[in-house]
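Review form for a predicted model. The reviewer records the input and the model, then writes brief findings.
Reviewer: anonymous (R2)
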Amino acid sequence: MKSVIYLDNAATTRVRPEVIEAMLPFYTGNFANPSSTYKVAQENRACIEECRKSIAATIKADAKEIYFTAGGSEADNWALKSAAEAYAMSDKPPLCNNKNTVFDNYGYTGRKCLKGHIITTNIEHHAILHTALYLEKMGCDVTYLNVDERGIVRLKDLKKAIRPDTFLISVMYANNEIGTIEPVKEIGEIALENNILFHTDAVQAYGHIPIDVNECNIDMLSASGHKLNGPKGTGFLYIREGVELGSFIHGGAQEMGKRAGTENVPGIVGLSKACGLAEVSMKERTIKELSLRDHLIDRILSEIPYARLNGDAKRRLPNNVNISFQFVEGEALLVMLDMEGICASAGSACTSGLSTPSHVLTAIGLPEEIARGSLRMTISEDNTFEELDHVVDVLKDKIFKLRSVSPEYEDYIRNR
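Model under review:
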C-alpha cells in the first residue's frame, strides 16, 4: 500500500511528467518574451498560437476564441465583470476616482454604476458567487436559483427568472463538491432563445467529460489547468466570436488586446499539453474512474450505516464521491484519515477552514448537522481498487470510533 493515498483531485492534480517535459525548454533556452520582434521571440509567439489552436479544438471552438488566464477564478471574474460592463453600464460614469473611497472585501467602492440582471445558482464556486455579490453592490440585480435535492437546476425556475433586462446566465457545468452535471445544453438553448449571454464555469468538467460549446450554445467558458494534470496558475476563458467584451487587464496588447501582461509561455505550453493528454485519454480514463467510483460508493453505502450519497447517482462526474456520515464531524474524520495517509476533503479547497457547513450541501437540503459530516473523495485513474478497499476499511474503523463518543449517536440508538 502507498504511504499516501490521494483522493482530492477536485482540489488539484499532480502534473504529468509529459507536461513538465514540455514546459522545461521554455524556462531555459526558449525563454524569450513572445512580444519581442527577434526570431526566437517570434518562435515563442508561434508556439502560443499553436497551443491556442490545440486547446480550441478540444471544445470545438476557434483559436481566436481562446484567451489564456492565470486560472479558473480569473476566467470567472473576467466573464461576469466584463459582461456587466459591456452590456449593463449606465452612462459609463468614472469609477474609483475618489481618493477617499473605501473598499470592502469585494472591492465595492460605495458607487453604483451598473444595471441589468444576472441569473446564477446558489451552488456555484465562490469565484462566481463573490463576483456576483460584487456586481450586486455595483448596481446589478442577481437571481440565485435554488437547485433540487440532487443539485440540478430546475429549468422551469430558470425560465421564470428571466426578465427583460437579463443579460447573463452563469451556471456551472458540473459542481465541484457533489459532482452533479447540470443540464447545460438545455440552459444554452434557453439563453439563446432569449438573446441572453450564457457563461459556464467548467473548471471541474473540462478534460473529464466531452464539451462542445456550439452544441450547448455556450458563449463563455472557464477552465483551469491544474484540475487536469496541468500546471497551477494556468487556465483559459473561451469567448464566442461576436461577444464583445472589454479588456480585463489593461496595459499591453497581449491576448488580442483583452488581457495585458507578458504571456506565461511555459504555463501555456504545459496547459496545452495537459489538455491534449486529457482529450486523448478521456474515454479510457472515464471507464476506469467510473468503475473505481462506483465500487467505492457501493462499499461505503452497503457497509457503513447512516451514510448517504450527495448529488445525482448517475448524472455526476466520473471521479466524484461525496458522502455524508451522520453522527460524525467531518473535520475530525479528515484529520484521522490524514494520519493514515489518506488525502480527502470536506468540500472546496477554496473554503477549507471555514466553520460554516458547505453552501452546496445546505442548498440541496441537508441539515447542518449532517452537512458537517460530509466527505469528498475525488479519484483519478492512478488510484487502485486495493487503495479504495483500504480507504473503506479505515473509514469503517474511524467512523465507529467517532460515533462511539458521540452523544447524538448514543441518544439516537437509545431512542430508536
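Findings: Confidence is low (pLDDT under 50) at residues 90-103.
Further findings: The chain has twelve helices and twelve strands.
Recommendation: see findings above.
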